[in-house]
Predict the 3D structure of the following.
Amino acid sequence: MLTKADALLHLPNLEVLELGNNELQRIPLDIDGLRRLRELVLWSNPIEHYPASLGNMRSLERLDLMHNVMTAEEITAVQLWANPLRAANLSDLPPTIIGTAGFDPIRDQGNAFAQRLKNSGNQVTHHCFKHLTHSFLMFGRVSREAETACLLLADNLSPYLQVDEA
């Protein structure tokens, strides 16, 4: 029997799925079959189980699970999406630019991620700004060192934002 939730898997080009506050109780186990899904919004639903396949969704840019109850095991499964260092395979990813700060509680995690990406054969540009804090990107107009870091990251990103006008 095909359920409403399973019917979603027959939409391979789906990019945004907004199901917040819909009394949704189940997420299809093979939700990662939606290879083009960029946004999955599931806030305020009585979801009974979160499949581990959520951690395999490479195209996902936004996952909103606010106001849902989760067990420790389910949090661990979803953390694959929230913390890419937990992923088993980091190969074949797009070019990545990472900026970490010397005074940042997640600096070591960012540095380790950059190294794992490099070790997996990906193109990585990584800068560790030793004298800056976690939120240095917000202080570009306040601190000369933060502004220099922001400009460097923007210069690194710029070639990927160019549009070919052929």
About this structure: The two ends are 49 Å apart (CA to CA). The CA atoms of residues 116 and 159 lie 23 Å apart. The chain has two domains: 4-82, 96-161. The chain has a mean pLDDT of 86.
